[in-house]
Amino acid sequence: MPKYVLLKNGTLLVHDDSDHVTPTTSDLLVTGNKMFRIALSVDPPEECEVVETAPASSLVPALSTANSTLSAEHKLGRIREVYLATLVVFDGMSPQMLGAAQEDPVRAIVVHSSPGDVEMVVVDGKVTK
């Protein structure tokens, strides 16, 4: 099993310091079950699985899991370094999300997405779908 997973070129829905969600095109490097580095371009380290996400894909934090609740102490529910790497990747090019995802990825996911739009699921740093 690789030590790192690198998700390349996705639109990350990142919380800024004022707790606003800002769509940001970046790479996301995961190690173990934590988000390790978020940057415009991340070079893959040794023992790294590289996953190329489509440019219109949106990576969003999972808000809860079966065994945890949403709170800051669990480091879940935000895309930030050192937070748990539990994410859902949505296809922004699907027919129902195509127009909306480019304008407002958050609204597109909430209003237009369906289970068929889920491209990938990462739970505790492991790609499960």
Describe this structure in words.
- It is a single chain.
- This protein has 129 residues and is mainly beta.
- It has one domain (4-127): Urease, subunit C, domain 1.
- The chain has 2 helices and 8 strands.
- Strands 1, 2, 3, 4, 5, 6, 7 and 8 form an 8-stranded mixed sheet that branches.
- A hairpin with a 2-residue loop joins strand 2 (21-31) and strand 3.
- The protein is globular, with a radius of gyration of 14 Å.
- The two termini are 16 Å apart.
Features:
single chain, 129 residues, mainly beta, Urease, subunit C, domain 1, 2 helices, 39% strand, globular, hydrolase activity, acting on carbon-nitrogen (but not peptide) bonds
Main sheet overview: 8 strands, mixed
| Low-pLDDT sequence parts | 63-73
Number of helices: 2
Mean pLDDT: 78
CATH architecture: Roll
> Helix and strand succession?
EEEEEEHHEE
Give the N-to-C terminal Cα separation: 16 Å
Q: How many strands?
A: 8
Tally of individual domains: 1
What is the strand content? Answer: 35-45%
Text of the CATH class: Mainly Beta
Shape: globular
The CATH homologous superfamily is called: Urease, subunit C, domain 1
CATH names the topology as: Urease, subunit C, domain 1
Classification by helices and strands: mainly beta
- Proportion in helices: 10-25%
GO molecular function, one term: hydrolase activity, acting on carbon-nitrogen (but not peptide) bonds
Short description:
By secondary structure, this protein is mostly beta strands. The chain has helices at 98-103, 105-112, and strands at residues 4-15, 21-31, 34-39, 48-52, 58-61, 87-90, 118-123, 126-127.
